[in-house]
Design brief:
globular; mainly alpha
Length: about 200
C-alpha cells in the first residue's frame, strides 16, 4: 500500500475527502521540526511530552483512537502510538491554518463528548456515540461532526503508516526486488503492501 492508497482508503473509511494539509503531510513524509520550535506544553501520566493537547485532552484522544481502532488480532491505535503521532503532527508539522481550524472544532467535540460522559461508557456505547456524531445532520453538532471526521482521518492514516502495522501486519519489503506486475494475492498472504 503506498501513501496515495492510504489516503484513498482513509477517505473511503471516513466517507469524506482527506484535508489538503493532512494529505500533503502524509504524501511528503514527516520532517524534523524547524529550529526554535516551541517546547512541549505538557506531560501526561505516562511521561510522553505533549506538543498540542493538554494531558486531559490527550487522555480523551487516546480513548477516541482506541474506540475507532480497538485491540483485536492487531494492536489498538494507542498500542502503535497514534495519539502521540497526532499530538506531534498537530503541534509541530501540520500547517498553522489547519491546526487552528482543528483546535476550534476540537473544542466543540471535546465538549460534546464530555457532556455525553464518553469516558465512562462501554466500548459499544462509545462506538455508537462516535458514529452518531459523525453522521449527525443537526446544525448544532456541525463543529463536533467536522472535528470527528478530521480526527478519524488522522487516526486511520497514522495507524496505517505506523512502523508496527507496516512491518508486522502488512507486506513489508524494505529492499524491493524484481517487479512483478500481476501476482495472485495468495502469493502475498492476502495482505496489502506497506508503504
Amino acid at each position: 500500500m503506498n501513501r496515495r492508497e492510504i489516503l484513498r482508503y482513509t477517505a473511503w473509511l471516513t466517507g469524506t475527502s482527506v484535508a489538503a494539509p493532512l494529505a500533503s503531510a502524509v504524501l511528503t513524509g514527516c520532517s524534523e521540526a524547524p529550529p526554535g520550535d516551541a517546547a512541549p506544553s505538557a506531560t501526561p501520566a505516562d511521561g510522553q511530552l505533549l506538543h498540542f493537547f493538554s494531558p486531559k485532552a490527550f487522555g480523551l484522544i487516546t480513548e477516541i483512537a482506541d474506540t475507532l481502532l480497538p485491540r483485536t488480532d492487531s494492536p489498538s491505535a494507542s498500542d502503535v502510538g497514534v495519539p502521540q503521532t497526532l499530538d506531534t503532527m498537530l503541534g509541530k508539522v501540520l500547517e498553522q491554518g489547519y491546526v487552528e481550524q482543528f483546535q476550534r472544532l476540537w473544542t466543540d467535540l471535546e465538549t460534546a463528548l464530555t457532556q455525553a460522559n464518553f469516558a465512562s461508557q462501554s466500548q459499544a456505547e462509545r462506538e455508537a456515540l462516535l458514529s452518531q456524531l459523525e453522521t449527525s445532520t443537526d446544525a448544532a453538532q456541525a463543529s463536533a461532526r467536522d472535528a470527528m471526521v478530521m480526527l478519524k482521518q488522522q487516526v486511520v492514516i497514522y495507524y496505517l503508516t505506523s512502523e508496527t502495522i507496516g512491518e508486522q501486519y502488512l507486506n513489508y519489503l524494505p529492499i524491493p526486488g524484481e517487479y512483478k506486475p500481476c501476482i495472485s494475492v495468495d502469493d502475498v498472504d492476502n495482505k496489502k503492501w506497506a508503504i
